[in-house]
Amino acid sequence: MHDLQGLSGLPIVIFIIASILYSGVKILKEYERGVVFRFGRIRPLKGPGLRLIIPGVDKMVKVGLRTVTMDVPPQDIITRDNITVKVNAVVYFRPIDPIKAVTEVEDYMYATSQIAQTSLRSILGQSQLDDLLAKREELNIALQKVIDQQTEPWGIKVSAVEVKNVDLPQEMLRAIARQAEAERERRAKIIHAEGEQQASQKLADAAKILHTEPAALQLRYLQTLAEIATEKNSTIIFPVPIDILEPFMRLVKANAVEAERKNAA
Q: How high is the mean pLDDT of the chain?
């Protein structure tokens, strides 16, 4: 009877021993590293593959080495020219020293997120609105440097920071639209004035050529008349220059003087 009771408890003992041994078997993926603590003291870093630890003595913390993409929530920022905007960004980072990522900060993901938010408000708050809209690449580089410097003691490498959206108040959007419209009108007026200047210069050059060559003016008029005639117009109003009629006017005037002389005689 006692033998049967001992045998009935044997599977339970075997199960407990197997569970303890199984808890000491750890498998690390290629992109993971294991930080092992033995009685609270750090042990050498464990690489990928099958790793064995002593149950109840060792504790392993897995740290991923892949790049993490973290969204920074929209932040209310007052620019240097006192304009309130909402800005959000995205941060790319990864742990490069797993031991520091575990021992130097309690939660490196949360800590990096908070550093990114405060740095976003600090750096962008020192810029004007025009710089925030036009010089985004420079601001991204400045943010990356500041955040990377603060997370470096934690074994975290920030590879890039990108400002995603800049939400402006409706009043500011209307002001920017008016400014853009005024700028386009200014450019249009300048282009029109430059065109008038170039056209007048070309007309002055053409007038000089026609003045030196009177026959060129007559040929130009005849060419214009031929171009108008090709349109099959029933009526053509064509201006005749006084220079062309001047010989005829002199002839008429001479005939009139001659007639007066004959009448006087």
A: 81
The pLDDT tens digits for 191-245 are: 988 888 888 888 788 777 767 776 676 677 777 777 776 766 666 666 666 666 6
Residue 95 has a pLDDT of 93
CA 237 – CA 248 distance, rounded (Å)? 21
Q: For 56, phi and psi rounded to 5 degrees?
A: 80, -15
Q: What is the CATH number of domain 68-168?
A: 3.30.479.30
* Gap between the Cα atoms of 34 and 26, Å rounded: 9
- CA nearest neighbour of 115 among 89, 133, 86: 89
* Helix (H/G/I), strand (E/B), else coil: 67: coil
Answer yes or no: are the C-beta atoms of 243 and 217 closer than 8 Å. Answer: yes
| Angle, helices 136-151/108-125, rounded to nearest 10 degrees | 140
Global pTM? 0.62
Taking the C-alpha atoms of residue 87 and residue 148, their distance in angstroms, rounded to an integer, is: 20
Domain spans, the chain: 21-64, 68-168, 170-229
* Helix runs in the chain, H state only: 2-23, 98-103, 108-125, 129-134, 136-151, 170-212, 214-229, 242-264
What pLDDT digit, counting tens, does each position of 11-21 carry?
Answer: 777 777 667 66
Instruction: Identify whether the C-beta of residue 139 lies closer than 8 Å to the C-beta of residue 124.
Output: yes
